Amino acid sequence: MKKIIGIDLGGTTAKLAILSYEGQIETKWEVPTSTEDNGAYILPNLQASIEAKLAELQLTKADIHAIGMGVPAPVKPNGEMSMAANLGGFGGFNVAESFSTMMELPVILDNDANIAALGEMWQGGAKGAQNVVMITLGTGVGGGVIADGGIIRGFSGAGGEIGHMPVVCEEAYTFACGCGKKGCLETVSSATGIVRVAKQMLTTHSAPTTLADVQPLTAKAVFDAAKNHDVLALQVVDYFAQTLAKAMGTLSAVTNPEVFVIGGGVSKAGAIIIDTVAKYYYESVFAAATNGVKIELATLGNDAGVIGAAYHAHTYQA
Ligand SMILES: [Zn+2]
Questions:
Q1: What angle do CA 241, 143, 110 make, to 5 degrees?
Q2: 239: CA distance to ligand 1 center in Å?
């Protein structure tokens, strides 16, 4: 059986892996991402690195079935990638086609949030499920929605942008979002959003809290304090969980996922996330959409991208 290649192209480094056709990582490595000259060196650097790795492993292109690649920008079904600000403006052309010509191999391109969801569905926290919502809680909130085994992309590729679901109603916590609107999920449930809510609560709260002395205040510090029963921190976590559960409830009513997978830096807080979110989710969302639904932490960590990208290579048919 031929092997497959997964690439997770990020603004600082590209993660690459050669996997078995069944999806087990056999070799993985990283290449720094050059953002000079509008990213003109990105594809040549990836090509050189892959060719060197294949030679090192005494493999040839004939041993490879296809290449899957995730990029930090919207991608059209034909492989055309939008310009990515954090890749120095790289994009604006059919990256899949160009890289395929260079590599003399099929290349399937997709958005990085989508490939993370596919990775968790194939080999991670949602293994075996066909209906999955991946929620990535990082600096922002990213998402990937898989319905009946396929990614929901929507009319303009914005399907699954769950960070911008308008779910905040409380005036005190209605903050401006980077997208230009107000009250988006990520304004309160991302790492930066959790800090924003904590700062807001600190201005009105009178009970003693350890958070007032934490410099700089981070989402991790909030979760650590909550685990130590700090009253204010528990309120921040509670609000975070309530808002996220509301978004998940809305998603359940639309696509009825079997598993929600929660990943990203914030998810490193662990069980406290699942426990608090589950409490509000099962309590407030109608039973037909939540019965048997699981909420899991992501299990693939930084490998989700290469594995999900490789999933596209795995399913590629000439
Ligand atoms: Zn927004």
A1: 170
A2: 18
